[in-house]
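Quick question, first post here. What does this chain look like in 3D?
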Amino acid sequence: MSKTKISTKTSCILWGKSAGRCAKCNKILYTDSNTLKSLNLADIAHNIADNPGGSRGDKEKSGKLANDIFNLLLLCKECHKEIDDDPISYTVEKLHEIKSSHERDIEFLTSFVNSRKSHIITYVCNISYQRNPVDLEQAANALFKNGYRPATTNGIDLSLSGSAITDRDEKFWQNEKTNLVSTFNRDIRDRITKTGDIKHVSLFALAPIPLLIKLGTLFTDKIPVEVYQKHREPDTWEWLNVQKIEYKLEKLRNTGSNIALILSLSGQISCDDVKRILGDDVSIWEINIDNPNNDFIKSKQHVDGFRLIIRKAFNEIKKCHGADEPISVFPAIPISAAIEVGRVWMPKADLPLIIYDRNRDANLKFMKALTIGGET
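> Answer (accepted):
Ran it through. Tokens below.
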């Protein structure tokens, strides 16, 4: 514990730069979490100790930096004890980065103006037997990192609550599709096209691929829509800075009147998988990447690149095969890519899509799930 009396001026500046939160764990330090009473739960900690014998003490610097704002961190008592008990792990450099990162985030988040608000829209439904909700706190953090703040506290949820049926049930796809469209029309459509109070959307979804594609078709280009991807490693919705992905569009077969588009991004789909469903009379196109895996989309650039290649695929397929036959889509793609398939598809210009889904309860065979476009 510091024995140096920190000046009122320095203490106020540190509280302001830290927004009253622990620089290490982000805990609020001015309210008791149990009683909700206003309390001062903070310790003002030193990076380089205020005496040479303390944690990270220094004979020359301890005295000089004892009341220096750049050497001070606002911490909860638990984190303060942790860093002082383990100076080997919590070096001067490590604590400087913790302090700097926290204060940069606070400055960034408090610099928003009203034009940087975005409506969080969520959609989840059963994937096989699992139903994983979207963590709104994680979603809000992803917005903050992307330069936006939530327009409302709870967001807008398009999910069908209480549904127990899964994708093995024949009624599943039509029930979910009907609910998705009707809920969108009720809660969102007019707020985009008529009243205009929704000006920017941040979309977070966890659902089977065919329904995600349908979800994408509901959003027009009238407003910006930011589609987020849930990462497995690390567990976050935030965009990461990683290397560029090269997408490839290839024509694998041109021997039939039926048209199939394979999307081998999360995993590999073979021509034999398609022929088992459509027979030998099929022309097959494929979008793929090197080393397909289910966690490859890490950045906005990866999503933008996929938008370009799927747009090219729709154009090339129509140019090659004409406008008479639908495209049977066999997808193994991440969440964000599935939504972008629907957003890119144009109802008046593009061929109808027949979306297949790989069903775990049918020995991983593809089953017809939804048709998009061409409906009577």
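Residues 8-109 form one domain.
Residues 311 and 344 are 6 Å apart (CA to CA).
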